[in-house]
Amino acid sequence: MKQAIVARADLNMGEGKLAAQVAHASLSAYEDAGRKARKRWKGSGQKKVVLRGDSESQLFELADKAERKGLPYAIVRDAGHTELEPGTVSALAVGPGSEELVDRVTGDLPLY
Amino acid sequence: MKQAIVARADLNMGEGKLAAQVAHASLSAYEDAGRKARKRWKGSGQKKVVLRGDSESQLFELADKAERKGLPYAIVRDAGHTELEPGTVSALAVGPGSEELVDRVTGDLPLY
Predict the structure, then answer these.
(1) ipTM > 0.90, yes or no
(2) In this structure, is residue A111 part of a structural domain?
(3) B79 in reach of chain A (CB within 8 A)
(4) SS3 B26
(5) Which end of chain B, N or C, is less packed with Cβ atoms under 10 Å?
(6) Does B19 touch chain A (CB under 8 A)?
(7) CATH code assigned at A21
(8) pLDDT digit string (tens) for B12-26?
(9) Using the beta-carbon criterion (under 8 Å), do A22 and B17 form an inter-chain contact?
(10) Whether B20 contacts chain A with CB within 8 A
(11) How far apart, in whole angstroms, are the C-alpha atoms of residue B20 and residue B69?
């Protein structure tokens, strides 16, 4: 079981900002998951990988792929109080789900 | 309502690694919170701040402070598969809780 979080490298977010967006995406996708998937993922150490995306359209395409595979996912839009324009899509989390299934959605992306 | 996540800057984690540790801490403290606090925090946009810590002992002191104030919190130890030694304490999340109460624990720390 794992969760993959794809964050937009093209936005040049600061480290703390990036971490907050990733955490937001992670928690939201977790909440979108079923009780069984949540439990299995937590029981196995809640494995996470943070991956590098490069555009809003890419994140939406990946979200669509996750949807079609029946995986939980969440897109994060920044509230825009600080570094980003309000409503900027900054991150997508996919899973928790089986490693194989998550990899079919995000497996081609480099580590952040 | 907010949650503060204190990550150790002295470990010089890469950006993606840092984000994963922060997400791990965030979710674990969230799970430690009561149903009411979780709901109120999510309803108000799950505000998060990522702050800069500089030692393991500091994180434990802050965790102790959170405990005494009755705030949910979680300490993250890295599994050590990649950048860090196994068991390294990398991050602490405090809250969700009222902004005032969380600030009494972590209010003096700089943004990451």
Answers:
(1) yes
(2) no
(3) yes
(4) helix
(5) N
(6) yes
(7) 3.40.1490.10
(8) 999 999 999 999 999
(9) no
(10) yes
(11) 27
